[in-house]
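Researcher: Let's do a round of design. I'm pasting the structure tokens now; please hold your answer until I've finished.
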């Protein structure tokens, strides 16, 4: 299974990426919105962890493009924007899950595993 992390905070992206690699996932990291969108549109990922506040293109715009282009990847928003309105916007635009920062890395892994397990059951 292949995961794309779109997160501009490099140390956080690497922390999450390294933990997911220990779970035997293949992980790629994009540190800005434009590169993240480009990589997401390749449609080679099973899951995308997506921040909202990114340089270039924000995460909500990336999410809209992912859905508009029928990209098959599950999307989990991973963001400091934790207000109810932010969560509802993410879900309304097509996110499969929403994890506000700060988070516990074990919860991220559990939610990733749950989303990918759902895919393998269907």
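Researcher: That's everything. Go ahead.
Model: Designed sequence:
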């Amino acid at each position: 299974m292949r995961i794309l992390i779109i997160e501009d905070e490099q140390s956080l992206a690497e922390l999450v990426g390294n933990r997911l690699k220990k779970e035997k996932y293949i992980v790629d990291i994009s540190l800005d919105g434009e590169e993240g969108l480009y990589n997401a549109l390749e449609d080679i990922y099973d899951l995308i962890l997506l921040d909202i506040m990114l340089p270039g293109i924000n995460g909500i715009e990336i999410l809209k493009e992912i859905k508009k282009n029928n990209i098959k990847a599950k999307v989990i928003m991973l963001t400091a924007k934790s207000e109810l309105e932010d969560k509802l916007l993410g879900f309304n635009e097509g996110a499969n899950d929403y994890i506000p920062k700060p988070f516990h890395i074990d919860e991220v892994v559990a939610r990733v595993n749950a989303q990918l397990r759902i895919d393998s059951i269907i």
